[in-house]
């Protein structure tokens, strides 16, 4: 896929791996919607990108990906702003064994929802122009992790879901 002028939505883009994805996509000529819960760090990351790249090429969209309506809004805002959507990176994740339901909600359910939303906007048969969806798992999704059973379960889920849907979701 040629990346110049493609539009990407990256969740958990304020810092860490999501920010690194954003940097790499911008370097290849993409426009990127940075979607993140953390407004302060998200805005600071956009400001930092604006010093390196044209400010028009990024937007920051504050959003808790575990909130169905807010995630839908984030997709809608991205398409409204940039006029298209070509790449989704479902990256936002947490590792919280105590509030384990939240870990499943963010790491697995929101990744599934983000995938379905990506297909809704990008799939040819839905009026889109095709695209790519990247779901971030972990080695913990392939191997057991003794002290992180829920994190590991959520990432096993991401891998199982992504492998299962990939063959039937050709954009
Ligand atoms: N760091 C690692 O060693 C590692 C290894 C394997 C997989 N991963 C996976 O990579 C992804 C990114 O990890 P990271 O290390 O960059 O994490 P990080 O904690 O540095 O960054 C995560 C980002 O996601 C955002 N976020 C958290 N909950 C959110 C929510 N509900 N809605 C929107 N945004 C939310 C945070 O604000 C933060 O900006 C995660 O899915 C993680 O499980 C990380």
TrEMBL record:
Any one annotated GO CC term: cytoplasm
Major enzyme class: oxidoreductase
Gene3D superfamilies: NAD(P)-binding Rossmann-like Domain
PROSITE patterns: ADH_SHORT (PS00061)
Catalytic activity: (15S)-hydroxy-(5Z,8Z,11Z,13E)-eicosatetraenoate + NAD(+) = 15-oxo-(5Z,8Z,11Z,13E)-eicosatetraenoate + NADH + H(+); resolvin E1 + NAD(+) = 18-oxo-resolvin E1 + NADH + H(+); resolvin D2 + NAD(+) = 7-oxoresolvin D2 + NADH + H(+); prostaglandin E1 + NAD(+) = 15-oxoprostaglandin E1 + NADH + H(+)
Pfam families noted in UniProt: adh_short (PF00106)
Key word Flavoprotein present: no
One of the GO biological process terms: prostaglandin metabolic process
Keyword Aminoacyl-tRNA synthetase annotated: no
GO molecular function: 15-hydroxyicosatetraenoate dehydrogenase activity; 15-hydroxyprostaglandin dehydrogenase (NAD+) activity
EC number from the UniProt entry: 1.1.1.141, 1.1.1.232
Stated family: Belongs to the short-chain dehydrogenases/reductases (SDR) family.
Protein task: Catalyzes the NAD-dependent dehydrogenation (oxidation) of a broad array of hydroxylated polyunsaturated fatty acids (mainly eicosanoids and docosanoids, including prostaglandins, lipoxins and resolvins), yielding their corresponding keto (oxo) metabolites. Decreases the levels of the pro-proliferative prostaglandins such as prostaglandin E2 (whose activity is increased in cancer because of an increase in the expression of cyclooxygenase 2) and generates oxo-fatty acid products that can profoundly influence cell function by abrogating pro-inflammatory cytokine expression.
The protein, known as: 15-hydroxyprostaglandin dehydrogenase [NAD(+)]
Protein source organism: Pogona vitticeps
């Amino acid at each position: 896929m040629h990346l110049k002028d493609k539009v990407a939505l990256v969740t958990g883009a304020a810092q860490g791996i999501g920010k690194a994805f954003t940097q790499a996509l911008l370097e290849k000529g993409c426009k990127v919607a940075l979607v993140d819960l953390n407004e302060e760090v998200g805005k600071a990351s956009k400001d930092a990108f604006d010093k390196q790249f044209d400010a028009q090429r990024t937007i920051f969209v504050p959003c808790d990906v575990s909130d169905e309506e807010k995630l839908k809004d984030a997709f809608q805002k991205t398409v409204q702003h940039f006029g298209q959507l070509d790449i989704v990176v479902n990256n936002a994740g947490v590792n919280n064994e105590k509030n384990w339901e939240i870990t499943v909600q963010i790491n697995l359910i929101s990744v599934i929802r983000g995938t379905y939303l990506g297909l809704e906007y990008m799939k040819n048969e839905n009026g889109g122009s095709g695209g790519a969806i990247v779901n971030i798992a972990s080695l913990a999704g392939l191997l057991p992790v003794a002290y992180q059973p829920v994190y590991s379960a959520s990432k096993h889920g991401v891998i199982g879901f992504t492998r299962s849907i990939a063959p039937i979701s050709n954009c």
